[in-house]
Amino acid sequence: MTTYQAPLEEFHFLLHEHLNVSAQEIEGFSQLTPEFTSEILTMGAKVATEIMLPINRSGDEEGCKFENGSVITPKGFVNAFDEIRKGGWAGLDCDPLYGGQGLPVTLSLIFGEIFSSCNISLTIYKALTHGAYATILAHGNETQRNTYLPKLVTCEWTGTMNLTEPHCGTDLGMIRTKAEPISEYEYRITGQKIFISSGDHDLSKNIIHLVLAKVPGGPDGVKGISLFIVPKFLVNTDGNPGERNNLSVGSIEKKMGIHANATCVLNYDGATGYLLGEKHKGLQAMFTMMNEARLGVGVQSLALAEVAYQSSLKYSKERIQGKSLQGDGKFSSTPKPIIYHPDIRRNLMDQKSFIEGARALTLWTALLLDKGTRLSDKKAYGLASLLTPVIKGYISDIGFDMTVVGQQIFGGHGYIEEWGMSQLVRDSRIAMIYEGTNGIQAIDLVGRKLNSDGGTNILYLRELVTAYLHENPVSEEMENEFFIPLSNSLKDLDSALKFFLDNGIKNPNAALAGASDFLHLLGVFCIGFMWVKMVASILEKKRRGEKLTKFLETKVVTGKYYMANVLPKTMFLATKIKAGDRILMSLEPDDF
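Request: output the structure for the sequence above.
Response:
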């Protein structure tokens, strides 16, 4: 009984007023006119809501089945995936050379959100396929690209990534899967991989697994990892699937959520694999897929938070419960819908201000990626790289919180399966774990990305914010409610950065102790920056004498709520960061 309509007006605002995409001097952006984006987004939303959404709950209840060594997806999934494939929705931003449509990531990311809102389990099959496409495109030779990419672009074949093993997750240097060479590019792959999303199913004619393994005699640790293409079915000379490869599904996991996506144990018993990229450089190649997946995970969390918000908003307007206090301090004469109660308003505003700000941040990051790839803009690409763990980690942390908030608004009904809120919470929970747990995202951010290229990327972010604050004349309203709070938050960011600079080298644990808090601080701050820019563009319309629509007036109020009620968290987080590790690390393991 959840509610969802694609927020098309919101997407229009972000594309054409916040990012002004059609005016960007980037290849392919001139076609992103309001008319074009409105038409294609409406079409995509229709596919998602009419084909994917109706089988979302039934897919959760039925789950995937493991029979005779193969996985069967829930009823309706095969037909729905066929419709996605026939509509070309799988290859929106893929290279036209291989059958894609060549649209910018900035636009395709929106479809990732819409599709995930409607059916995240089904969307994951498509999303991982895109990651495999991107990895082979970046690192494959001409034969590999011509063999696999046209089929991956259309999702006639699908893809996965195989990293984790029973004894190792984050520490990939410990993997035991072996790759025995047969020739320069052909190997025999032996080992076991676990937690493989979309590892087997009946949605496509072949599954192309990208597998990390070690070639005997290579360097120890992660320096000895190579990446291999291991198809479920070997590809004949005519380009069609042929003999079954020597790999099998050991089992499928019984999970908390995303029941309709098969998470598999895969056994490789001398399976034929083909070296992708350079030998012993597999982890670097796999990061192409992992970084894309991390951005997608943030979008998935945002998508489920959106459904939770829409559903709890509708419920709060319908659920009659209790008399509300009126402006004169007296209770209403009759019971009112719960949306009249301040605590419910607080929950709804927390959801609304986070979702709209996080959506702006993800699309801005996508624009930076498009600038990086299409214009070879190193500064834009570097900033997108810095923000990737924030998108994955912070947005999935708070996105999950917002599904729980939605469940809370439903009260007891939120805990009952038939109302649908439980599924949102269960499906959202995995985002904080897979593609690198959020603690790892924080360590990556503080331990590696802050310092990459001499700190260029975080300095570039500061430069953009500082320039915006100093170069834009504003009204008193904008100054007091937006610019001053953002300036104060920037000071909190700077104080945390100074702490890392002063302590990071001489005592790394002092920095790592505050890594997760810094991930959140940067997320809160960046969303605040988005709110300042969005509201400034709206108030500029008002200054020019344009009458604001109810949508725009509401956005200004939502932005004010964020700046007054959420952005001050950066002060608290900076204080926690500067506490360091003195107390945190003082107990011995046996003391716990």
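The chain has a mean pLDDT of 95.
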